[in-house]
Design goal:
- By secondary structure, this protein is α/β, with parallel strands linked by helices.
- It has 13 helices and 9 strands.
- The strands form 2 sheets. Strands 1, 2, 3, 4, 5 and 6 form a 6-stranded parallel β-sheet that branches. It has a 3-stranded parallel β-sheet with strand order 7-8-9.
- Its main location: membrane.
C-alpha cells in the first residue's frame, strides 16, 4: 500500500480545512439571510407592499383576447400554457401571496399605434378587464380607489387592486374622457407612453438626434395636470421627457409619481430620472418607484438584485428615503434581474437592503408602501381643498390646430 507523502497530507488537510470553513461561512450567511427575511415578513405584515406597475392585463388581452374563462389566475401559471412558455409572464395570485404583495396598480394600456384611432375604446376594455378579474376572485382581491382602501384591504388579507392608465393618448385629448376614467376607478394617468401626445412630449425626444414636439407640456397639457389635481388622480411621469417632467412639477399642486422608472445617473436610459429632477421630486413630495427592467437598471440585457438596490440607494441619497418606492413592471418586460425573477421575490430585495446598516425597519416600511400611501393621501387632500374652494371641472377643449391632420377619425359636428 502506497503511503502518502507529508506534502500530500498537508494539501489534503488544507483542502479539508477550507471546505469546512466554506460550509461554516455559507451556513452563517444563510442564517443571516433568514434573520433578515424574518424582519421583512414582520414589516410586510404591518405595512402593505405596494407595486406601482404591472402589465398583466395587456398579457391577458394578448394571450386570451380578454376572455377570462380560460384564465386560471389562482394557479401557478408557470405550469400552464401559454404563460409557462412566455418570457413576459411573472404574475399569478400564488406568487403575489408568496411575495407578500398587498397592493398592485394594474396597467390599463393601449399601444401608441392606437392614438387618434381607438385608444379610448381599448383603454375602456382594459379597465373593464381589470374590474372583471377582481370580481372573479372576491376572496383574494378587492378593487380599491383610495389610500384608506389600500390599508383596509391589507388588514383583510386581500390584494388591493388599483387601476393606472399608461399613456396620455388614452384620453383622446378629452378632459371628459379623463373624468370618465376616474369615475371608473383609474387613479393615475401616465402622461405619455413612448409616443408624444398633442399636448406632451415623451422620453423619446430626449434621445440623441431627436427633436422635441412641444418642449414639455402644452397649455392644454397643463390643464390635464390641473384637472387631475381637481379629481384626485395621481400624475405619473414615467415615460415622459425631462422638460415634461419639469413642466408637470411646476404645474401640479399635488405630489407626482414615477410609477416605474429608475435613476438616470446609474443607467442613462431616457426612461430614467435625472438627479436634478430627483431633487425637485423631494420638494414636490413625490415618489420614484424603481423599475426592475435590466435595460433601465444596468443599461444592458442582464442585471442583478444588487443592481436594483443601487438604484434604490441612489434615489434615497439624492431625494431622500421618503421619496422612493417599488414599481417593478412585471409582465411588461421579457428580461428580469437575477434574483428578482417574478412577483414572489420582493422580500429578497428588502432583505438585501437590510444587510446595510443604513436601512432600518422603518425605512423598509416607507419604501414598501408608506411613501405611496402618503402621496396618495396628499393627492386626495389637494382634491378636497380644491372642492372646498368651489373649483369647477375644466371645460376647455384642445385647440384644433394642436390636432390638425390627426382628427380624421373624429366626429366633425358640434363640439364643446
Amino acid at each position: 500500500m502506497r503511503r502518502r507523502k507529508p506534502i500530500e497530507g498537508f494539501v489534503l488537510g488544507g483542502i479539508f480545512f477550507w471546505t469546512i470553513i466554506a460550509h461554516l461561512v455559507a451556513s452563517c450567511l444563510a442564517i443571516q439571510l433568514e434573520e433578515r427575511m424574518e424582519i421583512v415578513r414582520k414589516v410586510l405584515k404591518e405595512v402593505p407592499l405596494i407595486d406601482g406597475h404591472n402589465d398583466l392585463p395587456w398579457n391577458i388581452r394578448k394571450f386570451l383576447k380578454n376572455q377570462l374563462r380560460e384564465f386560471r389566475f389562482g394557479e401557478d401559471l408557470r405550469d400552464i400554457t401559454p404563460w409557462s412558455t412566455s418570457a413576459w409572464s411573472h404574475t399569478d395570485l400564488r406568487r403575489l401571496k408568496e411575495g407578500m404583495v398587498s397592493a398592485q396598480f394594474w396597467s390599463a394600456y393601449a399601444p401608441c399605434s392606437s392614438q387618434h384611432l381607438d385608444a379610448v375604446q381599448l383603454t375602456l376594455e382594459q379597465i373593464d378587464l381589470i374590474r372583471r378579474l377582481v370580481n372573479l376572485y372576491p376572496q383574494h382581491m378587492a378593487l380599491v380607489t383610495t389610500a384608506d382602501g389600500i390599508e383596509e384591504s391589507h388588514r383583510s388579507g386581500k390584494l388591493a387592486s388599483l387601476i393606472g392608465i399608461e399613456g396620455g393618448h388614452s384620453i383622446g385629448t378629452s378632459l371628459g374622457v379623463l373624468r370618465t376614467f376616474y369615475q371608473l376607478g383609474a387613479r393615475y394617468l401616465t402622461l405619455t407612453h413612448t409616443c408624444n401626445t398633442p399636448w406632451a412630449d415623451c422620453c423619446k425626444v430626449d434621445e440623441p438626434g431627436r427633436v422635441p414636439h412641444i418642449g414639455g407640456l402644452s397649455h392644454f397639457g397643463t390643464l390635464v395636470v390641473s384637472e387631475m389635481n381637481r379629481l384626485g388622480m395621481i400624475v405619473d411621469l414615467s415615460h415622459v421627457s425631462v422638460p415634461t417632467m419639469l413642466d408637470a412639477l411646476a404645474t401640479s399642486k399635488a405630489p407626482v409619481i414615477f410609477s416605474h422608472s429608475s435613476a438616470h445617473a446609474i443607467c442613462n436610459s431616457s426612461r430614467n430620472v435625472p438627479d436634478h429632477v430627483l431633487k425637485r421630486i423631494a420638494v414636490n413630495g413625490g415618489l420614484v418607484m424603481v423599475a426592475f427592467y435590466p435595460h433601465f437598471v444596468s443599461c444592458g440585457e442582464k442585471a442583478t438584485l444588487k443592481d436594483v438596490v443601487a438604484h434604490i440607494n441612489h434615489i434615497r441619497d439624492v431625494a431622500g428615503v421618503d421619496h422612493v418606492g417599488i414599481g417593478a413592471g412585471y409582465d411588461g418586460v421579457n428580461l428580469v434581474p437575477q434574483g428578482l425573477e417574478d412577483v414572489s421575490r420582493y422580500p429578497y430585495l428588502f432583505a438585501e437592503l437590510l444587510e446595510s446598516e443604513r436601512w432600518t425597519e422603518e425605512d423598509i416600511a416607507k419604501l414598501a408602501g408608506r411613501n405611496l400611501i402618503r402621496v396618495f393621501r396628499q393627492v386626495e387632500q389637494i382634491r378636497d381643498q380644491l372642492e372646498a374652494q368651489g373649483t369647477l371641472p375644466i371645460d376647455q377643449s384642445i385647440p384644433p390646430e394642436d390636432i390638425l391632420g390627426r382628427s380624421y377619425c373624429r366626429y366633425s359636428g358640434p363640439r364643446t
